[in-house]
Amino acid sequence: MREQQRDYTTDHTLPTRRERLRAFTRLKSQRQLLTGGIAILGAAALMLGGALWQQDQTPDVVKLGKGVASVDAQPVAALDPVATVPSVAANPDPTPSASESPIGGGDASYYGSELAGNRTASGEIFDPSRLTAAHRTLPLGSEVRVTNAGNGRSVVVTINDRGPFHGNRVIDLSTAAASAIGLIRSGTGRVRLALLIN
User: Fold this and answer.
1) What distance in Å separates the CA atoms of residue 53 and residue 149, rounded to the nearest whole number?
2) The CA-based dihedral angle spanning residues 180, 185, 191, 197, taken in that order and rounded to the nearest 10 degrees
3) Are 41 and 35 in contact, with CB atoms under 8 Å apart?
4) Beta strands of the chain (E only): which ranges?
């Protein structure tokens, strides 16, 4: 036979043993749920922290056409600017001419040589010895003067791919273009961009 619940606001008698047991069981299950929820939140926080830490430890990744690449891991001595690009002479005067339109600047990085032979967004095959670059929005085929803000060296590149898709980078250069303006040693650097107007 079911017991009727007592109204303890008007009745000052103590709850029965069965009622106390039911209340204790309910509190115990609520405590278990709360403990489980805290454990799940702690595990999620640890996983998120681990993912953020691992992201800082991974190499910079950029997309090239349908492939993925990282900044070249070759020793700097292997990328001697003179030996790599004998025909490229860095422009000592980075001042834009009347046929150039400054379009801002930011951080630049460069593609690794291991991507040679992959197809770019323009359909061309990536050749690290050519003066090319990837930009998020400029039309494919655009020519852009990239000037290293640190040393004043500049080079004209043709946009043939989309990117960079990592951090706040504004442009990804081919190995030859990065070598021409002195970005090989640092891997990244601040640059100014100017669109060439034909």
Assistant:
1) 30
2) 20
3) no
4) 61-64, 67-70, 100-110, 132-134, 143-148, 154-161, 169-173, 188-196
Please report, for the chain, how many H helices and E strands are present, in that order. 3, 8
- Predicted confidence pLDDT, tens digits, the chain (198 residues): 455 555 555 556 777 888 888 888 888 888 898 998 899 998 888 888 877 766 554 444 444 444 444 444 444 444 444 434 433 444 444 455 558 889 989 999 988 788 888 899 999 999 999 999 999 999 999 999 999 999 999 999 999 999 888 778 999 999 999 999 999 888 889 999 999 987
Say how far apart CA 134 and CA 137 lie, in whole Å: 9
Is residue 176 within 8 Å of residue 129, measured between CB atoms? yes
Answer for the pair 130, 161: CB distance below 8 angstroms, yes or no.
no
Measured in degrees and rounded to the nearest 5, phi and psi for residue 126 equal -70, 125
Spatial contact of 118 and 167, defined as CB atoms under 8 Å apart: no
